[in-house]
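Notes from the 1:1 (GR / supervisor)

We went over the backlog. Supervisor wanted to see one worked example end to end before approving the batch request, so GR pasted a single chain during the call. The sequence is below; no edits were made to it. Supervisor asked that the structure be written out right there so they could see what the output format looks like.
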Amino acid sequence: MDRRQFLKGLSGAVVAGAAMAAGCDNPNAVKAEGYTPGEVPTDKMSMRTDAHGQQVSFLGFGMMRLPVEGGGTLREHPDAKLDQELINQMVDYAIEHGVNYFDTAPVYLKGMSEEATGIALSRHPREKWLIATKMSNFRNWSNEASIKMYRESFEKLQIDYIDYYLLHSFGGVEDGKSDFEKRFVDNGVLDFLVKEREAGRIRNLGWSFHGTQDEFDKVVALHDKYHWDFAQIQMNYVDWRYAHEIEPENVNAEHLYNSLAERDIPIVIMEPLLGGRLGKLNDHMAAMLKEREPNRSLASWAFRHLGMYPRILTALSGMNLMEHLQDNIRSCAPLEPLSEDELALLDRVADEFAHFPAIPCTACQYCMPCPYGLDIPGIFAHYNKCLIEGNIANEGTVEQREFRRARKAYLTSYDESVARLRQADHCIDCGECLTHCPQSIQIPTKMHMIEDYTNKLKDSLV
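Structure output shown during the call:
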């Protein structure tokens, strides 16, 4: 079934959204930026069915960007503790409103995500939630270390079985040997996990992918041998056709999705908002969507787009604010299909986004910690924010008032958002980050570009 056939079937099944609240006093009202306050439905979450008949909420809760005490995220406050009380509240709210899929990993949030997730979920009956975690054996893939990581996930999550277990983020090739072979096959780890699935301690066995098309195609072809229960890919309305154009090493989501759908492998989506970037478009792109649907958040368009594809099981969103959670629930409770002209509008936005000169960083933190102390995601976030807000000074207009305004805004906010000793000029081209970036960003090259640009702005002050 293609997405247009699925669209016709889904259109007839859509339930009208909840009525808008009369005022803003309702504590259950959405107040996310760009969205008219309204009720958050508790019983309309769109559900999908996995390989074993389990009902799964279309919105999945990604536990990689959880809040810290005092507000913000761990990237912004690296020494802060996770705000367990707020995490508990958000998990409670998610479950109450139909979300049942929670995704974590041993390496998320400096190793704190699994434990925080386990504390929050263990307060609810086990049948109310599904947990996904991963074999994140990036640096030590020995059989002993890998199995130890697997066992520790049970302890931290306070569980006796794992609903969805993933071989975490393979795709690279080094010295003629792929990540997949080194980390999972040659060391016997995959054979061990298959036996764990047979014993019932793993209910669904799959993998997440960031890498080359050749490596993806090889692992998909192993479905006949391993019978993958699901796979996790990066997909959104930009990556559908433009991932390869933005970064040549990346694979368009159109190929990823179609390859898995052809084999009837359920699909989990990561980065539906590209690390939040599709929820913070520049003024022109935002206006294109707001003109059509002034009362919808920008993020809602991304979820509605994913809803067009029937093999998608759930779409993960990393949420550290209750407002984000509320807005995403409304987008998926229930999913409202896109019309043909809305699809065409998103295609135009995607084309403009793909050719906008932003750095495609999703703040996943896989490149961290930098051995020389750089705040890599913070540097890229600052540059992209200034670009979107029009604070990238146009070279050649030094005498103009607009240049002086943009220069001041860029330099001032750079020092405020990224500590001086963690800025781009401290990059020494060690290349440690390159093998870990899921977006295949040439990080040292981008760092030198930002360093050169910043130095030009400082020189123009003289």
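Supervisor's comment: Residues 1-34 have pLDDT under 50 and may be disordered.
Batch request approved.
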